[in-house]
Amino acid sequence: MVPTWQLRAAFARRLSDMYGTEVPAYTTLLEVAGQVNDEVAARDPDAGRFGSIARVTAERHGAIRVGTPEELRQAAQIFAALGMHPVGFYDLRDGDEGAVPVVSTAFRPTDPDELDRNPFRVFTSLLTTSDRRFFDAGLESRLDAFLARRQLFPPELLALAERAEEQAGLPESEAERFLALAVAAFELSPEPVDRAWYTELERVSAVAADIGGVAATHINHLTPRVLDIDALYRRMEERGITMIDRIQGPPRWAGPDVLLRQTSFRALAEPRKFREPDGSVTGGSLRVRFGEVEARGIALTRAGRARYDGLMAETDRLTGLRPDTDRQEVARSLWQRGFPGTEHQLAVEHQAFFTYRPVTGRPRDGRRPPADLTGLLTHGWLTAHPIVYEDFLPRSAAGIFRSNLTEDGTRDTELAGTPFDAHRLSEAIGRPVLDPFGLYAEQQDRSLRQALFTLGACAALRALDDGELVATDQDSGDPDAGAPAL
After folding, report:
1. I need a surface site. Which of 355, 370, 413, 440 has the fewest CB within 10 A?
2. Which spans in 322-421 are helix H?
3. What CA–CA distances, in Å, run from 217 to 183, 208, 212, 226, 338?
4. For 233-267, what is each residue's pLDDT tens digit?
5. Where are the beta strands (DSSP E) in 297-395?
6. How far is the C-alpha of 252 from the C-alpha of 250, rounded, in Å?
7. Where in the chain are all domains bearing CATH 3.10.180.80?
8. What is this structure's pTM?
9. DSSP β-bridge partners for residue 122
10. Is 387 helix (H, G, I), strand (E, B) or coil?
11. Per-residue pLDDT reduced to its tens digit, 121-131
């Protein structure tokens, strides 16, 4: 049997090879990311703090777009065969500019050991054809009819995926067939694009056209992980690759790396065949696929996330008042004044998630462990190790999408949007959309409970049970930041 994690690793590797063939600039991105990672690892003995160098080098996240709940359910079945579950709800329809008519989730492993083996993720977006801000009733009807006629995933692939999920793997011969079919399902289709239909959808949104204007889905981008995204950004431009205007997410500053920083090279014009209204086939190009890269930091609690969102909003306000100012400098200044400057502060203020380990074998002079986290950390009873953020940021995802669109499209802001939340997305998928905050909190609580038990810290264990040792993480935050577990 080829176990689930090996299927996942092989799929990610083959998908990366395929995408590099289709988009050569992606191969350049991988090369530069590898050079930067090697250099950081050589000069920084703590470079593996957020994951081993082997993990970081192998790490990828992909992005696909589908048009219907049925297509989403089928994609979910394929990812389930790879040990990947829907985590987080992201609504990209409500940005101030360049809003995109999709809601999204990310399929990824959830167990820390599985993430260490291979942390492949696929950010998966569903077109919201019923949202009247983008699609009138007539266009929705024609779009739904077009989507109903296509088949993204062959029945044999779905049958193998179901078997792989049930058996936690596949025999070698079936595994090979599954991987070949799965990779082929995400290749760029050579079938000509109906120019008139694509253009009509493109007037609404380039993303809508990329989903509903073609006969198949495809990998929209693949994303390696890099340890110094600022250095990579500079080197890509030195190589003559045009990058988007800035790095999305937190600024580079002297304090802890948190959440996710990401950027990309601009979407490149790719040759495509078009079917004209008279039935003839002509040549042309589309500019929809790009190469993204990311740097990951510490996962924040809801309270930490609310602080992050507040600082981002204030950065927007100040740069809006003074458009000539450097956005990174404004953000850096705000962060230095308004965000915890050390991992210790993040831990004791319950702003970020950590795993905790007991410090044993040191003389304590008969003292008992304190019953508060600050005391346990400050006096050397526990050590805190950051939990890596494994998920995405709606604002940053929308920023990447927007930076790679040729036009903003159209949206009638006078109309109400179709209500969509994690519960509705779960119904569409047929599987629960998991709350990322809950996953991090569970991992933290499990490690802390074991550490306190090892130390014999009875008072601290009671405080943990009472919700007094660490925050329960039920405080309010950005409603789009996470979804309730179902």
Report:
1. 413
2. 327-338, 343-348, 373-378, 394-403
3. 11, 12, 9, 27, 43
4. 999 989 888 888 889 899 999 999 999 999 988 77
5. 354-358, 382-386
6. 7
7. 2-293+391-431
8. 0.91
9. 62, 107
10. coil
11. 999 999 999 99
